[in-house]
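Researcher: Hi, I'm a grad student and pretty new to this. My advisor asked me to get structures for two proteins we've been looking at. I'm not sure of the right format, so I'll just paste the first sequence and hope you can take it from there.
Model: That works fine. Here's the first sequence with its structure tokens right after it:
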Amino acid sequence: MLTTKPRPPVRRVTFGTPRQKEMTALPTSHRPLWRAYESQIYQSLLAEVPPSAEVRFDTTLPGRFSGIERQIDVLVTDIFAGLEKHQMIVDCKCFSRPIDVIHVEAFAGLLDDVNIPLGRLVTNRGFTEAARRRARHVREAVLEVIEIDDFELLSRIRPCIGYTDGADQATVSYFDGVENITRTITPQLAKRLFQQIAPDIAGRIVLPHHEPIATHEDPPAV
């Protein structure tokens, strides 16, 4: 006898514009890094908010002062802090340096223009002290630092990857524009990077506690 479990509540997810659908459909290596970061934040929000929330990705809202449609990275509609249902704007900034006061000012202007008091400004590189001081005077605005997904970043950098048979970690080395960086990553991430950079080598990789793994120091140019 077959039995079925009751379905959980369905979270409403809205993909806002044709541009967003087109960019999401692109292979990972072809998406701009900023788009990958927006998608990462969007996915983390889906896991964070309750099923009753509505999450809209890459949408627009009318500006009451500017008179134009304002682009919104992520718009969340839910009951916040036990109050009545409100909307919250999440703005994602994938930069190579910390967010400065000018970006906080722009975010405050966006919130005011679309008349939404709740906002989260998210970045991968942190905030300057001036930006943090300015944000304290933006009502209900939260600053947050979320690192970009390692695979999204490293698959574009195409780093040198090293792995030793039986080790529980691998290493990557690359130049970040300022200095040479060497850090550790998991063997699982190393294999994903090999699959992206050098598929012929990835096919010979065996993760720890199995057969010897191929090592690779300098990915061939594509």
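Researcher: Oh nice, that was easy. Here's the second one.
Model: And its structure:
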Amino acid sequence: MGARAARFGFRPLRRFARVLHGKLTADTLRQQRRAFRARGGTSEETVGRGFEPAFQDTDTGLTYPSRYPDGRRAPVHLLDGLPDRLVEERDSAGNVTCVKRSVVAGFSRAGRFYTRAETARLMEKDRQHTEEWDRAGGAARRPDAGE
């Protein structure tokens, strides 16, 4: 484990390395979701924290919010809303089955893209900070703690 990983308390998911760095398909998105469940790297866990599901083309650095095929923003990662230039394969019904290898799933917040692993680390730091705050009696003074 590298120094940065140790500092954030993050253990690499070696068994999912192929899934995280291979071609992106609906199956790999499901596998990533399972790999990051309860680690802070899924759409469900980031709701209300300012993160939105997104994709980044690492060849260009462009980030694309996850969208339904009709263009509406999606609350989870969907391949069907990505631009045609990123799509490598479609099924007979026209659904996206595979995108360029350079496309990675992650989240955007405040104009910045975060990979699932980066998001998980941020969520863990936030959780630890909240626990420390609560242990110090901060919950009673927090504005959102109620009156």
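Researcher: Is there anything I should tell my advisor about the second?
Model: You could mention this: The first helix runs from residue 3 to 8.
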